[in-house]
Design brief:
Growth Hormone, Chain: A, mainly alpha, 2 domains, globular, about 425 residues
Length: about 425
């Protein structure tokens, strides 16, 4: 592991740790390409196939399908040198996007190609999260995760603007080719990293009492199954996963409800609705920046619980808003909470989970959260149709706060027990 000055500020961490800076830069380039590419795909799908169903199917192929394969994605991320996994994923994604750009295929073929690319991305994400502990000191994990979160979410925000600007001079096909090029650039950056092989040391997961060496090395299915078992048998990770899913199950509906709140309830324009949606993104960036500067002021369980409560409170207050600017401000508050959740969960998993299991745990936790988000869209949409946006957001926020309160009764005690078990091991 790299050993710059312990607990360095995020800027000093980037400046003084070339390996982490390289991973950070590769993530930034890749996320910018993803954001621009998504705009291009949405425009192509809407203009060539002309139905809302086609766009919905595109989003399902990109977001929901990878969640179903998360156990296998995590097993792949754990099985080989993570640098090789990261480089391979970027090159395969770049190749798939290039095929889409050159071919501009029919809808069924497009959905298949997008689903495959998304599944490859689902391998990349846990592998990249798992790589961070090998590049920075343990005491700097919060700052490192916040620095990556700030940059990648910044690219998510900048991507649509960059796409709009580039479309003034490029076609959709050329924009997709530019997206493919960003994957190649990212792969070239990642190729300069040191080897990121999983730790050869084998130790039982905290609280599980299991020897991970019994997993057959040559059987991907067995490794995927072991990753799922680990989450259920490790009490800390089980509590984090269930609490995270519960909060998302309630609050995920805001993506659906905000446009109805802004347009119908508050009688705002399309621009006003876009502004409300931008609030959470602004809060995310500010939250990551604050955490990168100040972490770790709060113990990780408190950071996670604060994220649950603040993000849920943001939705509840948004539902009570009587003006667009108030809704914007409350969504900024929600973004602060989401940033705390992201850094808290990522850092807790990195510290609590054995290196050889990190990819599977990250993939399965976030895969479960993806399923919870999908269910939130369905049930929240039904509630929205039965009532209105205001009621939906108030119920979402209140349910999230109840989930946060329930987690508060278990998470701190479980975290302390896991720390003691790890120290004894």
């Amino acid at each position: 592991m790299a050993d710059p000055v312990a607990r360095a500020p995020a800027r000093a961490l980037l400046a003084g740790n070339p390996a982490f800076r390289t991973l950070w830069a590769a993530r930034v380039v890749s996320f910018l390409g993803d954001s621009v590419g998504l705009i291009a795909l949405l425009l192509y799908t809407a203009s060539h196939f002309g139905t809302g169903l086609a766009v919905a199917l595109l989003m399902l192929a990109g977001d929901f399908v990878p969640s179903l394969l998360s156990p296998f994605a995590g097993a792949v991320a754990d099985r080989w040198d993570r640098r090789v996994v990261l480089i391979s994923c970027e090159l395969v994604q770049g190749g798939l996007v290039a095929v889409i750009a050159v071919w501009l295929p029919s809808l069924p073929v497009l959905l298949v190609l997008v689903a495959i690319q998304s599944c490859v991305a689902a391998v990349f994400q846990p592998a990249s999260r798992s790589a961070v502990p090998g590049l920075v000191p343990e005491s700097d994990l919060e700052r490192a995760n916040a620095a990556i979160g700030f940059a990648t979410n910044g690219m998510d925000s900048a991507g649509p603007l960059a796409g709009a600007a580039l479309l003034a001079v490029l076609s959709v096909r050329e924009l997709l080719l530019a997206d493919a090029a960003t994957f190649v650039i990212s792969a070239a950056l990642l190729a300069t990293l040191p080897a990121l092989a999983r730790s050869p040391a084998v130790r039982p997961g905290p609280g599980t009492g299991r020897d991970l060496s019994v997993v057959p090395a040559g059987r991907l299915l067995a490794q995927a199954r072991d990753g799922v078992k680990f989450i259920w048998q490790d009490k800390l990770i089980r509590v984090i996963t269930l609490a995270f899913c519960a909060v998302v199950l309630f609050n995920g509906v805001d993506d659906v409800a905000l446009v109805f709140l802004a347009r119908h309830t508050l009688h705002g324009s399309n621009s006003a609705a876009s502004l409300v949606y931008a609030g959470a993104g602004l809060g995310l960036l500010a939250g990551f920046l604050l955490i990168a500067r100040a972490a770790p002021l709060l113990p990780l369980p408190m950071l996670i619980l604060a994220g649950y409560a603040v993000s849920s409170l943001g939705n509840l207050l948004t539902g009570l808003s009587f003006a667009i600017l108030a809704a914007l401000g409350f969504q900024v508050i929600r973004g602060f909470g989401i940033a705390a959740m992201d850094v808290g969960h990522t850092t807790a998993i990195q510290r609590a989970v054995p290196a050889e299991m990190l990819g599977r745990v990250f993939s399965n936790v976030y895969g479960a959260v993806g399923v919870a988000a999908g269910l939130s869209y369905v049930f929240g949409g039904l509630l929205l149709d039965a009532t209105n946006a205001r009621v939906t957001l108030i119920v979402a926020g209140a349910g999230g706060l109840v989930s946060a309160a329930a987690a508060a009764t278990v998470l701190p005690r479980t975290a302390r027990a896991a720390i003691r078990a790890t120290e004894q091991a």
